[in-house]
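Collaborator request, handled under Task 6.
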Amino acid sequence: MLAASQTSGAYMTHSQLHVQLLLTGNEIMSGDTVDSNSAMIAQRLGELAIGVHRKVTVGDDVPLLQAELAAMTQEADLVIVNGGLGPTIDDLTAEILAAVAGVPLQEHPQAVAHLQQWCAKRNLTLNAANLKQAMLPAGATIVDNPVGSAVGFEMTVGRCRVICTPGVPGELRAMLDGIVADLATRLQRPTERSILRLQTFGLGESTAQQIITDEIPDWPPEVELGFRAGAPQMEIKLSINSAAAAGARQRCREHLQRLFGDHIIGEGDTTLAQRVLQLLRERDATLTTAESCTGGLIASQLTRVPGSSAGFHAGFVTYSNAIKQSVLGVREDTLARHGAVSEAVVREMALGALDRASADYAIAVSGIAGPDGGSPDKPVGSVWIAWGDSSHIRTRGLCWPVERTLFQTMIAAAGLDMIRRILSGIEEEPRYFGQRRMR
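Structure tokens returned to the collaborator:
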């Protein structure tokens, strides 16, 4: 085994730093838990222009974990271990690192104090299982966890720095600010890397890339263009490695605004719901929702945003025809003549919601989420959306034939996007209207 040594000197330059990730846990190997943590770590390291050279996932197997970590410490300058810090028998990270470093486990006073404070805040009794989280490799340094019970810890093995982090995503997220800041101070020549992230809705990666290629053939090499597809939003990233490139990036930002401005929601982590609520607040206006196929998802996304009560008045989930009639005042003959998934019904749903909630704007949706319930005239994925105010309700029929949960996600986003466009004064129709037009 390699002997542990404590060093706190600077690293080599960021471009030379060799980083590996070790993800632990049977739940990741079995697919019960989806690994989002490695992406989170890589994205945060990317802010310093540090790339991840290798990532390995290993189950709760002591010999395999020990062999993998030992090999990593001989290859890498930095290893980040994620998972295995909890109070149960299958949380093995401290034991593995101690074995690789050739040191015993010992109770760490700072970790004990952290546990005592964590339990006291929650009126819990500190038990033996909790105290397992304070048994750390001798010589390890605490990495603060401001959220969870398990502290992180780090030590140097040979020339490699090993940082151990919890597997709970919220805890990892809370710890990464400090870890990244510390890494930045250790770099001999800290990078000036800056990433501008634009959030969009209604654009695909290939479409966006082709338009950029065609319209901006002289894209400056000092501005790195990247995409991150998701549901419902897609992120466009503009990264630079020096302050001198800021002007070039601003020009690229202006080009993208010209090309995709009506599809750009905002910067950073802005969501459709956040943007809609911001626009409502700026106008001192309110919104209501009337949902059938999305089952309250639009209202849920709005109410996740702190302070949403200032702009969101009420949400109605009117799944059955009888409830559409009794709650929103949709007429029986409208349902009989046109069916629940129709322009006439969503229009009456929107007007009924506006009346009952005394709101300024409304979104109404009714569709066929599947996998059953479709017909030749109205296949699975068909949906009618209505949006607007009492003086002008707009409607559109779309067909989004995807898996049920994704359908609900995309239709909820489309409804929010329509209100965003009205509030932003955008008259252009979104690209997806043509792509998803109801046949």
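The cover message to the collaborator said: "The two ends are 68 Å apart (CA to CA). The first strand starts at residue 19 and ends at 24. Please let us know whether this matches your experimental observations."
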